[in-house]
Amino acid sequence: MNRIKIYVFGLIILAVQILLSDFLSINGIRPDFILIFIMYNSVRFGSFQGVSLGFILGIIADLLGIGTSFGLSPLTYTLTGYILGILFYHNKIHSQSHFHLIWICIILFHFLCTTFIRYQSIVFENPVHFILLWILTSTYTLGFTGILQVINPLYKKS
Amino acid sequence: MEKIFSFIMNNKHHALFVSCTIISFSLFFTDGSTKNVELFRSRVIDLFSSLYKPVTWIKYSYTLDEENSLLREKVIQLSFQVSSMQFLETENQRLQNLLSFKRDNHLTLLPSKVINKGILPNINSLTIDVGKEAGVQKNDPVLTPEGVIGKILIVGEYSSIVQLINDINYRLSVRILPNGSTGILRWYGNNKCQVREVQKNATVRVGDGVVTSGFSNIYPKDLPVGTVSGIMDKMGSFEKIILVQITEEIESILDAFVVLGEKNESN
Description:
By secondary structure, chain A is mainly α. Helices cover 73% and strands 0% of the residues of chain A. Chain A is globular. In chain B, α1 packs across α2 (12-30).
Protein backbone atom coordinates (compact mmCIF):
# COMPACT_ATOMS: atom_id res chain seq x y z
CA MET A 1 0.00 0.00 0.00
CA ASN A 2 2.83 2.28 1.02
CA ARG A 3 4.57 1.58 -2.29
CA ILE A 4 1.43 2.44 -4.27
CA LYS A 5 1.21 5.72 -2.36
CA ILE A 6 4.78 6.56 -3.41
CA TYR A 7 4.05 5.86 -7.08
CA VAL A 8 0.86 7.94 -6.96
CA PHE A 9 2.85 10.73 -5.34
CA GLY A 10 5.44 10.30 -8.11
CA LEU A 11 2.74 10.93 -10.69
CA ILE A 12 1.68 14.07 -8.79
CA ILE A 13 5.30 15.27 -8.84
CA LEU A 14 5.39 14.61 -12.58
CA ALA A 15 2.24 16.70 -13.01
CA VAL A 16 3.82 19.49 -10.93
CA GLN A 17 6.91 19.35 -13.12
CA ILE A 18 4.78 19.52 -16.28
CA LEU A 19 2.62 22.39 -15.02
CA LEU A 20 5.22 24.50 -13.26
CA SER A 21 8.44 23.98 -15.21
CA ASP A 22 7.52 26.55 -17.87
CA PHE A 23 6.47 29.17 -15.32
CA LEU A 24 9.62 28.67 -13.25
CA SER A 25 11.90 28.71 -16.28
CA ILE A 26 14.74 31.24 -16.07
CA ASN A 27 16.63 31.71 -19.31
CA GLY A 28 15.65 28.23 -20.42
CA ILE A 29 16.74 26.58 -17.17
CA ARG A 30 14.12 24.82 -15.06
CA PRO A 31 14.12 23.09 -11.69
CA ASP A 32 14.04 19.30 -11.61
CA PHE A 33 11.38 18.23 -9.10
CA ILE A 34 11.59 14.64 -10.29
CA LEU A 35 15.22 14.44 -9.17
CA ILE A 36 14.35 15.86 -5.76
CA PHE A 37 11.57 13.28 -5.39
CA ILE A 38 13.90 10.43 -6.36
CA MET A 39 16.50 11.70 -3.92
CA TYR A 40 14.06 11.78 -0.99
CA ASN A 41 12.75 8.30 -1.76
CA SER A 42 16.19 6.76 -2.24
CA VAL A 43 17.43 8.14 1.06
CA ARG A 44 14.27 7.17 2.96
CA PHE A 45 13.42 3.79 1.41
CA GLY A 46 16.61 2.54 -0.23
CA SER A 47 18.02 2.06 -3.68
CA PHE A 48 15.36 -0.41 -4.88
CA GLN A 49 12.76 2.32 -4.57
CA GLY A 50 15.16 4.94 -5.96
CA VAL A 51 16.06 2.84 -9.00
CA SER A 52 12.48 1.85 -9.84
CA LEU A 53 11.18 5.41 -9.44
CA GLY A 54 14.13 6.83 -11.37
CA PHE A 55 13.62 4.46 -14.25
CA ILE A 56 9.84 4.88 -14.50
CA LEU A 57 9.80 8.66 -14.08
CA GLY A 58 12.79 9.02 -16.42
CA ILE A 59 11.06 7.03 -19.17
CA ILE A 60 7.88 9.11 -18.76
CA ALA A 61 9.89 12.37 -18.80
CA ASP A 62 11.59 11.33 -22.06
CA LEU A 63 8.33 10.19 -23.60
CA LEU A 64 6.73 13.57 -22.90
CA GLY A 65 8.71 15.41 -25.48
CA ILE A 66 12.43 14.93 -25.68
CA GLY A 67 13.96 15.27 -29.12
CA THR A 68 17.14 13.24 -29.21
CA SER A 69 19.11 11.52 -26.40
CA PHE A 70 16.05 9.38 -25.67
CA GLY A 71 16.90 7.11 -22.74
CA LEU A 72 19.26 9.55 -21.04
CA SER A 73 16.79 10.54 -18.30
CA PRO A 74 16.01 6.98 -17.13
CA LEU A 75 19.73 6.24 -17.19
CA THR A 76 20.77 9.21 -15.08
CA TYR A 77 17.80 9.07 -12.69
CA THR A 78 18.38 5.34 -12.17
CA LEU A 79 22.06 5.89 -11.45
CA THR A 80 21.35 8.76 -9.05
CA GLY A 81 18.65 6.79 -7.23
CA TYR A 82 20.97 3.80 -6.90
CA ILE A 83 23.97 5.76 -5.58
CA LEU A 84 21.87 7.75 -3.10
CA GLY A 85 20.17 4.60 -1.80
CA ILE A 86 23.42 2.68 -1.45
CA LEU A 87 25.15 5.54 0.36
CA PHE A 88 22.43 6.76 2.67
CA TYR A 89 20.08 3.83 3.22
CA HIS A 90 22.29 0.75 3.05
CA ASN A 91 25.43 2.38 4.54
CA LYS A 92 24.21 4.95 7.02
CA ILE A 93 26.26 8.14 7.10
CA HIS A 94 26.24 9.60 10.60
CA SER A 95 27.98 12.91 10.14
CA GLN A 96 25.59 15.67 9.14
CA SER A 97 28.21 17.63 7.24
CA HIS A 98 29.23 14.51 5.25
CA PHE A 99 25.59 13.76 4.57
CA HIS A 100 24.91 17.19 3.06
CA LEU A 101 28.19 17.32 1.18
CA ILE A 102 27.59 13.93 -0.43
CA TRP A 103 24.03 14.55 -1.65
CA ILE A 104 25.09 17.92 -3.08
CA CYS A 105 27.97 16.21 -4.91
CA ILE A 106 25.64 13.50 -6.24
CA ILE A 107 23.22 16.10 -7.62
CA LEU A 108 26.11 18.01 -9.18
CA PHE A 109 27.33 14.75 -10.72
CA HIS A 110 23.84 14.00 -12.04
CA PHE A 111 23.66 17.36 -13.79
CA LEU A 112 27.25 17.06 -15.02
CA CYS A 113 26.32 13.81 -16.79
CA THR A 114 23.13 15.19 -18.36
CA THR A 115 24.67 18.52 -19.36
CA PHE A 116 27.76 16.80 -20.75
CA ILE A 117 25.75 14.46 -22.95
CA ARG A 118 23.25 17.09 -24.09
CA TYR A 119 25.88 19.78 -24.75
CA GLN A 120 29.00 17.71 -25.54
CA SER A 121 29.61 19.73 -28.69
CA ILE A 122 30.34 22.86 -26.65
CA VAL A 123 32.48 21.28 -23.91
CA PHE A 124 35.72 22.17 -25.66
CA GLU A 125 34.39 24.87 -28.00
CA ASN A 126 32.78 27.01 -25.32
CA PRO A 127 33.79 25.58 -21.91
CA VAL A 128 32.71 28.69 -19.98
CA HIS A 129 29.17 28.40 -21.28
CA PHE A 130 29.14 24.67 -20.58
CA ILE A 131 30.28 25.15 -16.97
CA LEU A 132 27.81 27.98 -16.46
CA LEU A 133 24.99 25.87 -17.85
CA TRP A 134 25.93 22.98 -15.58
CA ILE A 135 26.31 25.11 -12.46
CA LEU A 136 23.13 27.13 -13.06
CA THR A 137 21.01 24.07 -13.80
CA SER A 138 22.34 22.32 -10.70
CA THR A 139 22.03 25.39 -8.49
CA TYR A 140 18.42 25.96 -9.46
CA THR A 141 17.44 22.43 -8.41
CA LEU A 142 19.75 22.54 -5.38
CA GLY A 143 17.99 25.74 -4.27
CA PHE A 144 14.62 24.01 -4.27
CA THR A 145 16.15 20.99 -2.50
CA GLY A 146 17.59 23.31 0.14
CA ILE A 147 14.20 24.91 0.77
CA LEU A 148 12.61 21.47 1.04
CA GLN A 149 15.35 20.34 3.47
CA VAL A 150 14.34 23.19 5.78
CA ILE A 151 10.68 22.13 5.65
CA ASN A 152 11.27 18.39 5.69
CA PRO A 153 14.89 17.53 6.58
CA LEU A 154 16.35 14.44 5.00
CA TYR A 155 19.03 14.04 7.65
CA LYS A 156 17.74 12.35 10.75
CA LYS A 157 19.97 11.46 13.66
CA SER A 158 19.75 7.73 14.35
CA MET B 1 17.92 -22.79 -8.51
CA GLU B 2 16.60 -21.84 -5.11
CA LYS B 3 19.99 -20.44 -4.19
CA ILE B 4 20.07 -18.29 -7.31
CA PHE B 5 16.56 -17.03 -6.60
CA SER B 6 17.36 -16.19 -2.99
CA PHE B 7 20.61 -14.50 -4.08
CA ILE B 8 18.69 -12.32 -6.53
CA MET B 9 16.04 -11.55 -3.91
CA ASN B 10 18.72 -10.59 -1.38
CA ASN B 11 20.35 -8.31 -3.93
CA LYS B 12 17.22 -7.18 -5.72
CA HIS B 13 18.24 -3.53 -5.71
CA HIS B 14 21.50 -4.39 -7.52
CA ALA B 15 19.65 -6.65 -9.97
CA LEU B 16 17.04 -3.98 -10.67
CA PHE B 17 19.76 -1.37 -11.16
CA VAL B 18 21.63 -3.56 -13.66
CA SER B 19 18.50 -4.40 -15.68
CA CYS B 20 17.24 -0.78 -15.70
CA THR B 21 20.69 0.43 -16.77
CA ILE B 22 20.85 -2.10 -19.62
CA ILE B 23 17.39 -1.06 -20.87
CA SER B 24 18.28 2.65 -20.59
CA PHE B 25 21.55 2.14 -22.44
CA SER B 26 19.86 0.25 -25.25
CA LEU B 27 17.25 3.03 -25.58
CA PHE B 28 19.97 5.67 -25.46
CA PHE B 29 22.18 4.07 -28.09
CA THR B 30 19.29 3.43 -30.48
CA ASP B 31 18.03 6.94 -29.57
CA GLY B 32 14.50 5.51 -29.45
CA SER B 33 14.53 5.41 -33.21
CA THR B 34 13.29 1.87 -33.71
CA LYS B 35 9.93 1.78 -35.45
CA ASN B 36 7.99 0.46 -32.45
CA VAL B 37 9.49 2.98 -30.02
CA GLU B 38 8.82 5.86 -32.45
CA LEU B 39 5.24 4.73 -32.89
CA PHE B 40 4.79 4.48 -29.14
CA ARG B 41 6.32 7.94 -28.64
CA SER B 42 3.99 9.47 -31.23
CA ARG B 43 0.99 7.90 -29.49
CA VAL B 44 2.15 9.19 -26.11
CA ILE B 45 2.66 12.78 -27.34
CA ASP B 46 -0.79 12.71 -28.94
CA LEU B 47 -2.31 11.64 -25.64
CA PHE B 48 -0.21 14.09 -23.67
CA SER B 49 -1.02 17.02 -25.98
CA SER B 50 -4.75 16.46 -25.58
CA LEU B 51 -4.34 16.32 -21.78
CA TYR B 52 -2.14 19.41 -21.84
CA LYS B 53 -4.48 21.53 -23.99
CA PRO B 54 -6.24 23.26 -21.04
CA VAL B 55 -2.83 24.31 -19.64
CA THR B 56 -1.80 25.69 -23.04
CA TRP B 57 -5.08 27.57 -23.20
CA ILE B 58 -4.43 29.19 -19.79
CA LYS B 59 -0.88 30.04 -20.80
CA TYR B 60 -2.04 31.69 -24.01
CA SER B 61 -4.79 33.66 -22.26
CA TYR B 62 -2.20 34.88 -19.79
CA THR B 63 -0.07 36.39 -22.56
CA LEU B 64 -2.98 37.46 -24.75
CA ASP B 65 -3.28 41.06 -23.51
CA GLU B 66 0.40 41.75 -23.88
CA GLU B 67 0.47 40.13 -27.29
CA ASN B 68 -2.57 42.13 -28.39
CA SER B 69 -0.98 45.48 -27.62
CA LEU B 70 2.26 44.43 -29.33
CA LEU B 71 0.32 43.33 -32.40
CA ARG B 72 -1.58 46.62 -32.53
CA GLU B 73 1.72 48.46 -32.49
CA LYS B 74 3.04 46.19 -35.21
CA VAL B 75 -0.07 46.74 -37.36
CA ILE B 76 0.58 50.49 -37.35
CA GLN B 77 4.24 49.97 -38.24
CA LEU B 78 3.30 47.55 -40.99
CA SER B 79 0.69 49.86 -42.49
CA PHE B 80 3.45 52.45 -42.92
CA GLN B 81 5.67 49.83 -44.45
CA VAL B 82 2.94 48.66 -46.83
CA SER B 83 2.53 52.09 -48.34
CA SER B 84 6.24 52.37 -49.05
CA MET B 85 6.40 48.79 -50.28
CA GLN B 86 3.64 49.32 -52.79
CA PHE B 87 5.96 51.64 -54.61
CA LEU B 88 8.86 49.22 -54.24
CA GLU B 89 6.77 46.34 -55.54
CA THR B 90 5.95 48.11 -58.80
CA GLU B 91 9.57 49.02 -59.24
CA ASN B 92 10.65 45.48 -58.40
CA GLN B 93 8.18 44.03 -60.88
CA ARG B 94 9.49 46.28 -63.58
CA LEU B 95 13.11 45.31 -62.85
CA GLN B 96 12.25 41.61 -62.67
CA ASN B 97 10.61 41.79 -66.04
CA LEU B 98 13.69 43.45 -67.34
CA LEU B 99 15.88 40.65 -66.07
CA SER B 100 13.40 37.96 -67.21
CA PHE B 101 13.44 36.68 -63.68
CA LYS B 102 10.64 34.39 -62.73
CA ARG B 103 10.05 33.86 -59.09
CA ASP B 104 8.30 30.53 -58.85
CA ASN B 105 9.01 29.14 -55.44
CA HIS B 106 6.92 29.90 -52.40
CA LEU B 107 6.66 28.02 -49.18
CA THR B 108 3.56 26.34 -47.88
CA LEU B 109 3.56 27.21 -44.20
CA LEU B 110 1.45 25.58 -41.54
CA PRO B 111 0.95 27.68 -38.39
CA SER B 112 1.20 25.85 -35.08
CA LYS B 113 1.15 26.50 -31.36
CA VAL B 114 3.77 25.28 -28.95
CA ILE B 115 2.07 22.89 -26.52
CA ASN B 116 5.01 22.22 -24.25
CA LYS B 117 8.77 22.31 -24.13
CA GLY B 118 9.36 18.98 -22.43
CA ILE B 119 9.79 18.70 -18.69
CA LEU B 120 13.52 18.35 -18.33
CA PRO B 121 15.75 21.11 -16.91
CA ASN B 122 17.09 22.22 -20.32
CA ILE B 123 15.03 22.93 -23.42
CA ASN B 124 16.20 21.00 -26.51
CA SER B 125 12.86 20.15 -28.07
CA LEU B 126 9.25 21.27 -28.12
CA THR B 127 5.88 19.80 -28.92
CA ILE B 128 3.58 21.55 -31.40
CA ASP B 129 -0.14 21.04 -31.96
CA VAL B 130 -0.04 19.83 -35.57
CA GLY B 131 0.66 16.32 -36.82
CA LYS B 132 0.06 13.87 -39.63
CA GLU B 133 -3.55 14.98 -39.89
CA ALA B 134 -2.42 18.46 -41.01
CA GLY B 135 0.14 17.03 -43.43
CA VAL B 136 3.24 17.26 -41.24
CA GLN B 137 6.01 14.80 -42.03
CA LYS B 138 9.25 13.81 -40.37
CA ASN B 139 12.11 16.25 -41.10
CA ASP B 140 9.83 19.14 -42.14
CA PRO B 141 11.62 22.44 -41.27
CA VAL B 142 10.17 24.57 -38.49
CA LEU B 143 10.39 28.38 -38.57
CA THR B 144 9.37 31.49 -36.73
CA PRO B 145 9.28 34.92 -38.38
CA GLU B 146 12.84 35.36 -37.05
CA GLY B 147 14.19 32.28 -38.81
CA VAL B 148 14.75 28.53 -38.72
CA ILE B 149 14.40 26.99 -35.24
CA GLY B 150 14.49 23.27 -35.97
CA LYS B 151 12.90 20.35 -37.73
CA ILE B 152 10.22 17.75 -37.05
CA LEU B 153 11.57 14.66 -35.32
CA ILE B 154 8.55 12.62 -34.25
CA VAL B 155 5.12 12.98 -35.86
CA GLY B 156 1.95 12.00 -34.04
CA GLU B 157 -1.57 12.14 -35.45
CA TYR B 158 -2.34 15.56 -33.89
CA SER B 159 1.02 16.73 -32.53
CA SER B 160 4.72 16.54 -33.29
CA ILE B 161 8.07 16.88 -31.53
CA VAL B 162 10.47 19.48 -32.91
CA GLN B 163 14.22 19.01 -32.61
CA LEU B 164 15.46 22.50 -31.79
CA ILE B 165 18.50 24.23 -33.21
CA ASN B 166 20.20 23.95 -29.79
CA ASP B 167 20.07 20.14 -29.84
CA ILE B 168 23.48 18.49 -29.89
CA ASN B 169 22.68 16.43 -33.00
CA TYR B 170 21.33 19.35 -35.03
CA ARG B 171 23.25 20.50 -38.12
CA LEU B 172 22.18 22.94 -40.83
CA SER B 173 23.82 23.77 -44.14
CA VAL B 174 23.92 27.57 -44.45
CA ARG B 175 25.03 30.33 -46.77
CA ILE B 176 26.45 33.66 -45.65
CA LEU B 177 25.19 36.69 -47.55
CA PRO B 178 26.24 38.69 -49.52
CA ASN B 179 29.48 36.74 -49.89
CA GLY B 180 27.79 33.41 -50.68
CA SER B 181 30.16 31.19 -48.68
CA THR B 182 28.63 28.03 -47.30
CA GLY B 183 29.23 26.05 -44.13
CA ILE B 184 27.68 23.77 -41.55
CA LEU B 185 25.93 25.38 -38.60
CA ARG B 186 25.71 23.90 -35.12
CA TRP B 187 24.83 25.13 -31.63
CA TYR B 188 27.45 27.01 -29.63
CA GLY B 189 25.50 28.29 -26.61
CA ASN B 190 23.98 31.60 -25.48
CA ASN B 191 21.68 31.82 -28.53
CA LYS B 192 24.74 31.61 -30.75
CA CYS B 193 25.73 29.05 -33.36
CA GLN B 194 29.00 28.24 -35.09
CA VAL B 195 29.37 27.88 -38.83
CA ARG B 196 32.28 25.62 -39.69
CA GLU B 197 33.89 24.61 -42.95
CA VAL B 198 33.80 28.16 -44.33
CA GLN B 199 36.62 28.83 -46.80
CA LYS B 200 39.56 30.66 -45.27
CA ASN B 201 39.61 33.31 -48.00
CA ALA B 202 35.88 34.12 -47.74
CA THR B 203 35.14 37.75 -46.94
CA VAL B 204 32.67 37.69 -44.08
CA ARG B 205 31.73 40.71 -41.98
CA VAL B 206 29.91 41.07 -38.68
CA GLY B 207 26.28 41.83 -39.44
CA ASP B 208 26.12 39.71 -42.62
CA GLY B 209 22.96 37.65 -43.00
CA VAL B 210 22.91 33.87 -42.74
CA VAL B 211 20.35 31.81 -44.69
CA THR B 212 19.86 28.15 -45.52
CA SER B 213 22.00 27.07 -48.46
CA GLY B 214 19.45 24.79 -50.11
CA PHE B 215 22.02 22.00 -50.40
CA SER B 216 20.11 19.68 -48.07
CA ASN B 217 16.95 17.82 -49.01
CA ILE B 218 15.28 19.07 -45.84
CA TYR B 219 15.57 22.86 -45.94
CA PRO B 220 14.55 24.99 -48.92
CA LYS B 221 17.15 27.62 -49.75
CA ASP B 222 17.16 31.19 -48.43
CA LEU B 223 15.27 30.61 -45.18
CA PRO B 224 16.59 33.15 -42.65
CA VAL B 225 18.75 31.73 -39.84
CA GLY B 226 20.51 34.65 -38.13
CA THR B 227 23.26 37.23 -38.47
CA VAL B 228 27.04 37.00 -38.22
CA SER B 229 28.17 38.15 -34.78
CA GLY B 230 31.83 37.13 -34.81
CA ILE B 231 34.60 35.61 -36.91
CA MET B 232 37.30 33.25 -35.62
CA ASP B 233 40.23 32.97 -37.95
CA LYS B 234 42.76 30.55 -36.45
CA MET B 235 46.33 30.46 -37.69
CA GLY B 236 47.19 27.20 -39.39
CA SER B 237 43.57 26.23 -39.91
CA PHE B 238 42.09 25.71 -43.35
CA GLU B 239 38.72 27.02 -42.36
CA LYS B 240 37.12 30.08 -40.83
CA ILE B 241 34.71 29.69 -37.93
CA ILE B 242 31.79 32.10 -38.04
CA LEU B 243 29.64 32.89 -35.00
CA VAL B 244 25.98 33.41 -35.79
CA GLN B 245 23.50 35.16 -33.53
CA ILE B 246 20.09 33.48 -33.55
CA THR B 247 17.42 36.19 -33.33
CA GLU B 248 14.71 34.00 -31.86
CA GLU B 249 14.70 33.43 -28.10
CA ILE B 250 14.44 29.66 -28.07
CA GLU B 251 12.97 29.43 -24.58
CA SER B 252 10.14 31.87 -25.24
CA ILE B 253 8.75 30.51 -28.50
CA LEU B 254 4.95 30.28 -28.44
CA ASP B 255 4.12 29.92 -32.12
CA ALA B 256 5.96 28.32 -35.01
CA PHE B 257 5.41 27.50 -38.68
CA VAL B 258 6.03 24.13 -40.25
CA VAL B 259 7.26 24.25 -43.85
CA LEU B 260 5.14 21.64 -45.62
CA GLY B 261 6.89 22.15 -48.92
CA GLU B 262 7.34 24.56 -51.76
CA LYS B 263 4.42 25.43 -53.97
CA ASN B 264 4.66 26.72 -57.51
CA GLU B 265 2.95 30.00 -58.18
CA SER B 266 2.05 30.91 -61.72
CA ASN B 267 1.53 34.58 -62.26
